[in-house]
Each structure stands twice: as structure tokens, then as C-alpha cells.
Amino acid sequence: MESRYWRADGSVAAATAKTTDGPVEIIRLFKLSKTSAVKSRSMTISQLKAVPVTERRRGSRRSG
To answer: Where are the domains of the chain?
Structure first.
């Protein structure tokens, strides 16, 4: 697919869009999925650290 646009000097330029197949696209998708997994892992760790931890003592009971 080719696009045409006007340059500042008045001439016409053409640009060809990148293809969405081939080895480079596969690598890009792997990188994208890895980045997403790392971000998800980091968010999960942050959420777990934010959970308040209470200590349960033996023999101690709370009354409702």
C-alpha cells in the first residue's frame, strides 16, 4: 500500500506501509507479549505487597 503526501517544498512524496508478516513481525509480537507479561507480573507483585498482612496468634480469638 502506498500513500502520497505533499512536502514543504511543494513536491509529492510517496511512502510504502510496512508489511504485517515475516520474521520481523513475529519478533515484534514476541517482544510485545513479553513486555505485557513483565508489566502484568510487576502489577501483581505491587498488589500483593499492598495487601495488609495480619498476624494470627495462637489461642487468641476475636469476638464478633
So the answer is: 21-49
